[in-house]
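We were asked to recover a plausible sequence for a given structure. The inputs and outputs are reproduced exactly as logged, with field labels preserved.

PROBLEM: sequence recovery
POSITIONS: 799
GIVEN STRUCTURE:
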């Protein structure tokens, strides 16, 4: 009842004969929506909810209605290690579809800001959401633009010149909105009214097919990110990636989300949702740009500097030195993949102090807040930034000029008032401390981003680390997830460095092969050294690299590796009958064979096959880690190694004895059969849950037993005897006796012989006899006996 008394005042029905003027109506709606009700029952929780941040407002007479959707990503994974470990969660993002919609609307004098907030219809008792709660902020100059507007929309607005077709569309939207808003009932009403409103708005947006912008709201439990897209007639291009947090709203949107999800025009690819595994939200908002934005609006991209922001298609953060600002909300900082579900997207999204609510209009700085960027500095920085990023972004000179002139005509708002001193970027601090304008070293925060060939990749967490590298999960501005392998070359000798570089060459060679992990991009940070590594590796073999040089490789992202899958499978198997599921085994064994066959056909020997080097990508196993792979020389089927390689439990006898002389005086080399041995060890592990030499713990014990040709590997009985035969074919000590992959692919374990129905028909008898005759074609006696039998059978059949 108490709650009842707090219900917003009923707004007189606007569906009456004379609808109120838009500002009046909006004021009513705001009055209703601003008084959001407490969440009832179990809806009320102390769980920190997403809060909303604002992005800069600039003076304009423009309203943007925007809607869209994208998925949030969350990565509740544990870092992987090369071998073993627990299961890894499976998250993969598909590129975001860019078919969202957003309509720029030009509106005069009166402006409105419709934003999403949430409330609960207590009587219905479920999550109610209003994507278009109205919140009116009447300013002397008109509307206050709140929110999340796309960079392009802002730029368009700044230019002060709205294209005629947009104006036209804008007017339509304006009137549609007025009509739509007039149908919004008071807060206490049932969900239906609000649903209807959202649908109406959606429909309105649908009507605006050209020059549409959209903002997609990425929502996790604690953070909300907004993506904005521009959908021009000819150039559908993903645009701004804004971030925000919302207070007590995230859980409320689901209703509208579901509603809007049905409106395909607003949706990004559903795969994005599944990638994240988290609910996505859509919001429709009306932005006006009539008043200067509160400083806090800059928080929306506060963890990115200008270049970062632009890389992520954000409104550039106009820090004079291009400095870096640490995330406002450390809770959302991506530290480790497994840290929180929020971490992934929430760092794309930035946090804001709870106080920086939507309604904040305070332009003054609060006490103790740090450095403020002066407008002039910002303008200069914007110019500089625009110039420097022109090339990178591939903006045409016409575009750039246009944008620059727009930028000049726009009064750039001051920095966020809600950034406190501790949150101001490190570069700014250090340069101001020195009192100099020190040249900036990096214009992005290396703790949060990797930069490969000028493209930024935001860290989502460390996936794993191998002997030579660390691998991170990263996300790009278009929400694609990759694995980024970082190899430190400092302290390594040139030949080792060359080995690392060779992995790139192999991956380039294997581009397009769908059972090999795909290399998307790479960079060696020191080009001169790269040339030395490539050309002088022999001369400088033992010279160690002293510079801080890294190899970055951007790779297709794998959800989980076979090592983790196996350990999980064995946990499940232990709980059931103790024997591995044969069909599961067949499926993955075949995939492994196909992957290794691909590289063998390209005359590459992997040399380090182990479960951790098979990754599951979209349901298929793909091979990774060509760090020690070697090409097979054209004049031989084997390879000469410079160093002993491999992982002990999977190493073939010849890998242990490389370069030694065998009994006949030949140098022992590793070739394709060495990989087959490793595959045999993996198969053995899949069947028995341990590798064949796992009982031998030390290096010398393993060395002794593996290099002993008389050692007999123990095969415990299994249901399918073909399985044991298969393992034996792979683990033959003599490498010349090991089967090759094409044979293994035809092994009866994978291709079980089909036993014919008995008794055989006359034709089948005849066929059988002909086969026998063919086998014994050199034996005239067998041949004639076969033909006699065949004739006899034919005669019998005739009788
Ligand atoms: N593309 C990828 N997608 C997802 N995870 C990956 C990817 N590449 C590597 N990893 C993870 O990182 C770990 C280490 O990667 P990788 O094996 O390439 O590094 P390395 O330094 O060569 O390791 P090793 O010591 O095993 O040779 C892998 O076991 C795997 O779990």
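RECOVERED SEQUENCE:
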């Amino acid at each position: 009842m108490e709650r009842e008394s707090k219900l917003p005042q009923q707004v007189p029905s606007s569906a009456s004969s004379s609808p109120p003027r838009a500002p009046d109506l909006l004021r009513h709606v705001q009055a209703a929506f601003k008084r959001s009700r407490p969440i009832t029952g179990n809806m009320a929780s102390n769980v920190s909810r997403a809060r909303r941040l604002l992005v800069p407002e600039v003076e304009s007479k423009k309203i943007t209605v925007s809607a869209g959707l994208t998925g949030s990503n969350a990565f509740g994974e544990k870092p992987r290690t090369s071998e073993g470990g627990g299961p890894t969660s499976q998250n993969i993002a598909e590129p975001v579809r860019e078919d969202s919609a957003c309509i720029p609307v030009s509106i005069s004098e009166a402006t409105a800001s419709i934003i999403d907030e949430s409330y609960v219809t207590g009587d219905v008792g479920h999550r109610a959401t209003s994507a278009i709660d109205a919140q009116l902020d009447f300013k002397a100059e008109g509307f206050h633009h709140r929110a999340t507007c796309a960079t392009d929309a802002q730029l368009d607005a700044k230019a002060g010149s709205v294209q005629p077709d947009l104006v036209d569309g804008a007017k339509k939207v304006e009137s549609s909105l007025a009509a739509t808003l007039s149908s919004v009932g008071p807060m206490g009403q049932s969900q239906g009214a609000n649903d209807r409103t959202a649908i109406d708005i959606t429909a309105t947006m649908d009507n605006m097919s050209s020059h549409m912008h959209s903002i997609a709201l990425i929502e996790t439990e604690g953070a909300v990110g907004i993506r904005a897209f521009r959908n021009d007639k000819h150039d559908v291009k993903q645009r701004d990636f804004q971030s925000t947090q919302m207070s007590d709203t995230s859980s409320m949107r689901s209703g509208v989300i579901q509603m809007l999800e049905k409106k395909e025009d607003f949706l990004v690819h559903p795969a994005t949702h599944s990638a994240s595994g988290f609910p996505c939200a859509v919001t429709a908002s009306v932005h006006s740009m009539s008043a200067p934005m509160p400083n806090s609006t800059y928080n929306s991209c506060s963890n990115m500097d200008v270049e970062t922001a632009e890389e992520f298609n954000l409104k550039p953060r106009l820090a004079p030195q291009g400095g870096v600002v640490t995330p406002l909300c450390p809770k959302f900082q991506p530290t480790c993949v497994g840290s929180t579900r929020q971490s992934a997207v929430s760092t794309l999204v930035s946090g804001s102090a709870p106080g920086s609510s939507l309604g904040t209009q305070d332009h003054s700085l609060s006490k103790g807040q740090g450095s403020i960027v002066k407008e002039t500095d910002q303008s200069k920085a914007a110019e500089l930034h625009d110039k420097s990023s022109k090339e990178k972004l591939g903006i045409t000179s016409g575009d750039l000029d246009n944008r620059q002139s727009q930028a000049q005509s726009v009064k750039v708002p001051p920095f966020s008032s809600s950034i406190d001193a501790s949150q101001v970027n490190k570069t700014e601090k250090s340069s101001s401390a020195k009192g100099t304008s020190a040249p900036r070293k990096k214009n992005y925060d290396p703790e949060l981003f990797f930069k490969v060939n000028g493209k930024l990749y935001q860290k989502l967490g460390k996936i794993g680390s191998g002997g030579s590298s660390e691998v991170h999960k990263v996300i790009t501005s278009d929400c694609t997830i990759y694995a980024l392998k970082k190899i430190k070359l400092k302290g390594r000798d040139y030949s080792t460095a060359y080995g690392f570089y060779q992995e790139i060459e192999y991956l380039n060679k294997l581009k397009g092969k769908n059972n090999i992990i795909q290399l998307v991009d790479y960079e060696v940070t020191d080009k001169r050294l790269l040339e030395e590594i490539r050309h002088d590796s022999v001369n400088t073999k033992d010279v160690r690299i002293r510079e801080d040089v890294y190899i970055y490789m951007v790779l297709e992202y794998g959800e989980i590796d076979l090592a983790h899958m196996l350990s999980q499978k064995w946990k499940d198997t232990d709980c059931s009958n103790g024997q591995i599921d044969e069909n599961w085994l067949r499926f993955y064994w075949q995939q492994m064979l196909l992957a290794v066959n691909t590289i063998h056909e390209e005359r590459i020997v992997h040399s380090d096959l182990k479960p951790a080097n098979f990754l599951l990508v979209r349901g298929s196993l793909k091979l990774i880690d060509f760090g020690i792979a070697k090409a097979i020389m054209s004049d031989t089927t084997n390879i000469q190694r410079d160093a002993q390689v491999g992982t002990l439990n999977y190493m073939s006898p010849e890998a242990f004895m490389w370069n030694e002389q065998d009994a006949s005086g030949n140098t022992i080399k590793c070739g394709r059969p060495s990989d087959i041995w490793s595959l045999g060890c993996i198969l053995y592990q899949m069947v028995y849950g341990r590798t064949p030499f796992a009982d031998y713990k030390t290096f010398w014990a393993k060395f002794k037993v593996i290099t002993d040709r008389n050692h007999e590997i123990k095969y415990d009985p299994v249901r399918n005897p073909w399985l044991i035969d298969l393992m034996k074919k792979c683990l033959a000590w003599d490498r010349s006796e090991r089967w090759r992959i094409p044979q293994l692919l035809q092994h009866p374990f994978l291709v079980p012989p089909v036993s014919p129905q008995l008794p055989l028909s006359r034709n089948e008898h005849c066929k059988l006899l002909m086969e026998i005759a063919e086998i014994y074609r050199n034996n005239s006696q067998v041949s004639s006996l076969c033909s006699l039998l065949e004739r006899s059978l034919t005669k019998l059949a005739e009788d």
